[in-house]
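User: We ran a pulldown and think these components assemble together. Before we commit to crystallization trials, I'd like a predicted model of the whole complex to look at. Sequences follow.
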Amino acid sequence: MISLYELFGLLSDIEQPFNSAVYRQLKNSNPEVAIKLHALLSQKNTSIDTLLEKLYLPLVAEDNAELRIGREINNKYKITALIGQGGMSDVYQAQRIDGLIEHTVAVKYFSLAESFTTALTMIKKEAQILAKLDHHYIASFIDIGHDDNDEPNIMMEYIAGQTLFSYLKTTPDTIALAHVYSTLAEATTYAERQGVFHGDISQNNVLVDIHGNANVIDFDIATYNNN
Amino acid sequence: MSLSTLRKAPITELIVQWKAGQQSSFNELFTYCHQQFKHEVRKQKLKQVNKKKPLELCIQTTTSIVHDAYLKMSTHREQTICSRKELYLLISQVVQSVIYDHYRKSTSQKRQAPAQNESEQAEESNAELHAKLMLADKSLTDEKPRCTHVLHLHIFAGLSVEEIAEILTLSVRTIHNDLKFAKAWYLAELGDEVHL
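Assistant: Here's a predicted model for the assembly, 423 residues in total across the polymer chains.
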């Protein structure tokens, strides 16, 4: 018996395949195969891009950082806003909600990880590095937590301010700028003395706080050398 | 895995280990490929200067992973251990796993999330798509196994019709026919609207 592959090959180049003698004969002799062939021939002019879009677009659409807003962490904090996005991570502002004190923290997620387990490994690495640092111009580590979707995150000191990139656009005066750079140098020198190399200092990884001090954030790709 | 680790991922070694039967190397290739995908997509999104459609970006990323792996292998002793055909088939398997696993995980990981219509809808459609793709793979393999290989090399390893013909030592016309049949098969299984 002629296969579906061969039947499709025979009829797919015909303008009106369903009017052909071959198809009509098949419909009578083997209606089940005819139904399947009908479904296949109905797609003969659809571009392969339609299939590719079906396959790949959910992967792109899923990278939506806004979906984490509203989640609760350890029943103590609630994520209220997305405040920054990097190549590997998303950072949010979260408020304490247990009524004991008012407190705002920054919460970071490793969105690039393919699983929560990998994300936790990355979080532990950065948290361990941050835990070695105690400096007023470096955002301090608070805790590792899990939100109510069971996704791991790293909780850090919230710094009210703007990125150095945005700050430079405000055309600050020379004295203010010199202060930013001297506080930045203080922070990086301190970190290096502790054996921590940030590895990615950029205008988006430095926050300028409301007092005009630089604060180093995002130790995503930092390395630690205990020598 | 940090970004710096990701850049240094020993693709060649992992492929050689995979050839020697180590399942763990496939898992590492999988992690590498997955992060590479997400990283490229995110990088372009953040730059916001990308004129390419997300689809083109994904295909380009797949192609760059494949070519990077092949270029690294072609200058090393591993070339004799793993043929070009085997390498491309492996990469297409890795990329396929990345995509299918993504659908599967996005379903299971979001199951406990608070009611969010948007994510719940996405979750449902991902679960449905995953189930339909698995069925399409199986039924096409039962019907015409070669067509599944050809389609996977095209959509997951980013190979052109001519490249597939060369690798499988078949004519370009045969590959065209196989692709046309496989495409129609998958679209019919995925329940797409009819285009007469």
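Chain A touches chain B through 56 residues (CB under 8 Å). That may be worth checking against your pulldown data before setting up trials.

User: Thanks, that helps.
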